[in-house]
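Contributing: when you submit paired examples, paste them exactly as shown. First protein:
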Amino acid sequence: MKAENYTITREFILLGLTSHPKIRLLLFVIVLLIYLLTIFGNTLIIVLVWVDSQLHTPMYFFLSHLAGMEIGYVTSTLPQMLSHLLTGNGVISLARCTLQGYMTLAMGSTECLLLGAMAYDRYLAICHPLVYALAMDRLHQLLLATSCWTIGFAFSAIYVLCAFRHPFCGVVINHFVCEPPAVLKLACGDTRITKVIGFGLSTFIVLLPLFIILASYGYILDSVLHMQSTGGWHKALSTCGSHLAVVTLFYGTIISMYIVPQSDSTPDRDKKIAVFYLVITPLLNPVIYTLRNKDIHLAALKMLRRL
């Protein structure tokens, strides 16, 4: 084999969403507003679930975990994005890029698993109400949530270590964050094994929870159709409808990024898709889960009265 010398990469350059100064400034204002609203909305959910005893149920337990995960998700990506939009400087060190890639992937993987756990919780609550309290007691809640976090972070560590172990032939990343698939495009040498590992891990993390979600809601729909009470129909469908709205947006974009084969003919495709699951979904989660949720409304009113 012919020996090749690779320059040791110490930093990367993120191209960001645009290079036009005026558009960058407009995007800065929009993204900053989204970031602040996301932090506020998800923090509010955590505080309400923590202080209101009426919300100490499995559904809100998992929702509070989802809210905490979303805060970590946007904090690992949007501050870097905001700095780039404001200054136009997309330089990021290799260490920061690796850490950002890991945190982004870990939080996204955990969200996939948490959404599956939430669907399973709704399935037990609606289809098996008599055994629900026993099947989803405090110990099972903690085990399920801990498993989601542990598996998400462990699998992401494997993917990131595989992606960043390669020498790199370039430093310009056509993205606004250091996502492993975008970084891997700059890798030199044979990356086939890394891509197979990444595809296998992504398929497991994404498709297994998605299968659980679809199966759970299939059983829920069948159970709802056999309900005699119109009020029961409405409550079940309103509770699950908001969850499915988040699932459709999040999983649809994640699958197109990590599982569907990517084409080189559309170089900006990855970062446009990433906007949905890195920026839009974390904002929509607190909105969708609280907009028509009477329990959250009552908890918020009680807290306002105390204040």
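Second protein:
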Amino acid sequence: MDLNRTFARLADDDTITLEPSWAQGRALFGGLSGGLMLAKLQHTIDRPRRLRSLTVSFVGPIDTSGEIGLQAQILRVGKSVLQGEVHLTQNGGVQAVLLASFGEARESAARIAADSPPPAMPQVGQIPAIPAGAPDMPAFLQHFDIRWAHGPLPFSGSTQAEFGGYLRFRGQEGAFTLPHLVTLTDAFPPAVVTLLPQPAPASSLTWTLELLHDPDGADMADFWQYRVRTDYAADGYGHTEARIWDKNGRLTLISRQTVTVFG
């Protein structure tokens, strides 16, 4: 499935059917849910605008074999800020909601550069890719080239819940857009699963992205550097923060998630 064509279709279509290969367990991969909703909203606004942040609430599991509906609306347009909302629906119910804030640049004395260089990791060429299509891997991972650079692996029973690596798409062509970056950001597993001694389900409950820079000049072949840490985990929930750097080492995006853990 070509993501560029899929995102472009949403300019005219309010419904779409996806391929089962984008499944994450029994539901649609959450990163693609976010990418689809953002693409739909971008087609709805009057002109290209600078995304500042978005929040996704995952209400229920999305069946990859069923038709999905996407309804976008603009909530308010101010002098600098536009805010919009998208509902992703299936079988008559809302399965996910996105709220996004776009903000134009303006003069301000408040300026702090992002003082967060990428962590020291082995060169990406020195790290083997996670095999595509392995029987014990979620189906959607076949669409990503992931290199695990440091930190414990999922379900290793570790006392640490942070790790890092590199990632990019596998098998995609054409322009790399903001919906692609949103989709890509969620490809690594939730950090809290490293604490579990054996496989168990985990899923995102809420997801907030803060965009520091547009992915200008990014290419499908580029690797993005990723690091995630868990701030707190208890009672079947985990709270994590991830950071993503572009090929030039520029901090581009901050991702925060509340994760439900069933184990």
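If you have annotations for the second protein, write them as plain sentences, like these:
The chain has a mean pLDDT of 93.
The two ends are 33 Å apart (CA to CA).
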